[in-house]
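User: These chains co-purify. Model them together.
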Amino acid sequence: MRPISPAPRPQLGTPATGMAALAVPDPCAHCDARPVSVCSALEEKDLHRLAALAEVLEVAPGKTFIAEGEKPEHFFNVTGGTARLYKLLPDGRRQITGFARQGHFLGLAVGEANAFSAEALEKVWVCRFSRTRLRQVLDDFPAFERRLLGTAANELVAAQEQMLLLGRKTARERVASFLLAQARPLRPCDAPPGRFHLPMTRTDIADYLGLTIETVSRTMTRLKTEKLIALPSPAEVVLLDRARLESLAGGFEEERF
Amino acid sequence: MRPISPAPRPQLGTPATGMAALAVPDPCAHCDARPVSVCSALEEKDLHRLAALAEVLEVAPGKTFIAEGEKPEHFFNVTGGTARLYKLLPDGRRQITGFARQGHFLGLAVGEANAFSAEALEKVWVCRFSRTRLRQVLDDFPAFERRLLGTAANELVAAQEQMLLLGRKTARERVASFLLAQARPLRPCDAPPGRFHLPMTRTDIADYLGLTIETVSRTMTRLKTEKLIALPSPAEVVLLDRARLESLAGGFEEERF
DNA sequence: CGTTATCTTGACGTACATCAAATGTCGTGG
DNA sequence: CCACGACATTTGATGTACGTCAAGATAACG
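Assistant: Joint model of the four components:
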């Protein structure tokens, strides 16, 4: 059988439980997520239009701020922290479809129901926008809509890459791909760090890669013994041989000895 | 090891090989793909703007009209036939990320290179647009861009559903999901047919579902012996018990006997 | 420092892959 | 119309990568 993660059923975070609204004066003007967000499509002078709609919220770890199947009322922009996006099967099997970091725009999905749930992995900050009201702003700024289309296209590319991973890569290739993706900086122009922190648990990684925690753990320790990576602690990763990891992740033939 | 399909390396279709330009007067005006395409975002009176850019092409079966890794020069709109969209690993493992049918818009991916290849499964008709020139038309019609965003969002939802399938569903659940998806009509309002034709081979199905042809075949014959489907011929499918197929596809507990 | 959750490691099981061969299916030409 | 070849599909026997079950070992925390 397929693995069933002991993932708890989602508990919806409401403003009363786990989501605190922060009173921030002129939030967009000095938002450090702006350069990596769709918001940068707006000029400085138009920023107040956005700021007027934005509710700045803090989501506590473990709290769900988007629930699969519910009617989507808001758009979100993640300004800090990391969230997991996932879908569940009725028996509890979970597939994490992505992790949302700073700059990630959520809630594009049209239609009657959210296609996935979003849950704070660690403390998360989001800007929340009413769908209907943001819709109006969008109509006034075609550049914003164009930017949104660009991010959607990028996400589509990432989704296709993930399908290749889930459908055709081995556990080793999946873990290598994952680690390299985690090492990718927010802005592509920046150099990727050789050492970084994993905010998610092994269970999250497993549910993202279509594996079990045991397989993830075993694969990581094997990469460690082969000196491709180091693990100062379970959540700290050091990439020791990026070239071989890249070749592994890309699905190149394993070199024989 | 993961399965390696004997998928031939892509051979790029050029106008000289496998892609025939058709001289069609006023192509958009009586295009039967329009109601299900992004083109319907334009009003009748503006349609000539689009028609002026559209090249109507016929792609022969097996010909590639988008090549992964190449610089994207065009957008495509599929007006007839079916194409497979896929990614390859260097050793030939293939993941089909989707099948493009009538109304499917291709080439959204921004960036330097196509994220996937597209190949005609059977004879395919496409409208081809120069990227730069369509870009200009898009600027004049925000409704068109909005519609594009809508389709991108829909594709994203489909991609997430497919990740759930690839990461967490059993072979049985995958095949059931696939058959039900194939039975879905082009316009959601239409009733789904109980009997339909599969334009793709078992190899295509396997590469789409992250399985091997043997597993696909075995799973289909098992569904047949269990009277959930009938297969008058390998490519003809009849859904005999849609309810149980839906429950299987949705990942509900298998009923015990 | 217990207590508890997370991670690692080992022994074993299984769903699906692989290898191999039989059986359609279909277009082509005699 | 039928024989033939090429290829797609089905079916069977066997292998294995990864899942499951079960302890331990670490790390996190009040």
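The longest strand of chain A covers residues 74-80.
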